[in-house]
Amino acid sequence: MSSNVSVCVRFRPLSHKERKANGDKVCFKRLDSESFVFKDEREEDVIFSFDKVFYEDVQQSDVYNFLAVPIVSDAINGINGTIITYGQTGAGKTYSMEGPSILHCNEQKTGLVQRVVDELFVCLGSSASMWTVKLSMVEIYLEKVRDLLDLSKDNLQIKESKTQGIYISGATEISILNSSEALENLSQGIANRAVGETQMNLASSRSHCIYIFSVQFGSTSDESWISYAVNQDCLKQVSILAKATTGKIILVDLAGSEKVEKTGAEGRVLDEAKTINKSLSALGNVINALTTGKQNHVPYRDSKLTRILQDSLGGNSRAALLCCCSPSPSNAPESLTKHIKASPKIIPELRLSLKEEDVDLLEELFLQEGIIFDPNSISD
Ligand code: ADP
Ligand code: MG
């Protein structure tokens, strides 16, 4: 990994409906845990490589261990971290984040959010005077930031200060002392989201849902804290001479990345599609700038989403993008859409008789690798 942003893919299992339509057929062939071969509509092979590929049989705990464990321990050490799920509606973003239900699911199916919370409180230990954890939950819809812990706050502003870094001004912050308190408030936020959607006649897939855990650890270097820190197993990296640290963990369940234009959308649906597209492109551009080392020109201000993530994606932070995909052949063109162009390293072992839009995509992918792509110059 050349940057602190890792990009992973997760294929969910085929759904019942997909099995009925295509049998067991899937749109990719496994190579290894970092690459797969994607079959396009003409059965041509393209190899895609990522920091990690999670196939259908991968467990929630495997995804958590790879993506989130380092982020949780870093947050306690004052380093911000982000995990983002990306993909078309139905691809497994919310399942990866929340599991089938944040409150009622068995251990095996528990999603990233609950695992992060559980691990966080285990690491922090029981001396609650040594730390503070605060939870905020917001949603971005049509470029407006809405507080999911207080629906009356529906147009929050994003601000920056020397002490707090980037913050959402006026967003409700609830102090949380343990996992069950966290889950209670998280499920309230999720329920509020549903209420807001019903009131406004929205679908959750059209907004970005953002969970923010702000973790303040340690008092100034008083002795009780030092002995406490030394006694906590997972805090081995804490510099016991350091002052109190604050780290944020931000988890983002993005709006669906599907292309709505195809359906001839109008009015609000078209506005939604345009704003989602714009913010996903902004995110792609930011990740692209970070992963290709152009860190002087990271365009954080192009969307509310990237602005909120500014100090949790770049600089001294750690981030993971989980691109969720349906394995179904019928969804393949959407699964490998342009938005994830920023990060995959495409390997030019391909034979080309591609559609025009595929050629555009490849051209962009190659450009990011510093290669000028000429489809006519490549033969069998
Ligand atoms: P999205 O949030 O991307 O729209 P969901 O997470 O709601 O998609 O997933 C769509 C459906 O697929 C849900 O019924 C979900 O339970 C199921 N699903 C998604 N990922 C998995 C997985 N890894 N294992 C089992 N079922 C999954
Ligand atoms: Mg969802």
Automatic annotation (TrEMBL):
It comes from the Eukaryota. GO terms for molecular function: ATP binding; microtubule binding; microtubule motor activity. One of its GO terms (biological process) is microtubule-based movement. Residues 4-348 form the Kinesin motor domain. GO terms for cellular component: microtubule. ATP binds at residues 87-94. Keywords: ATP-binding, Coiled coil, Microtubule, Motor protein, Nucleotide-binding. Belongs to the TRAFAC class myosin-kinesin ATPase superfamily. Kinesin family. KIN-1 subfamily. This is Kinesin-like protein. The chain holds residues 1 to 380 of 466 of the full protein.
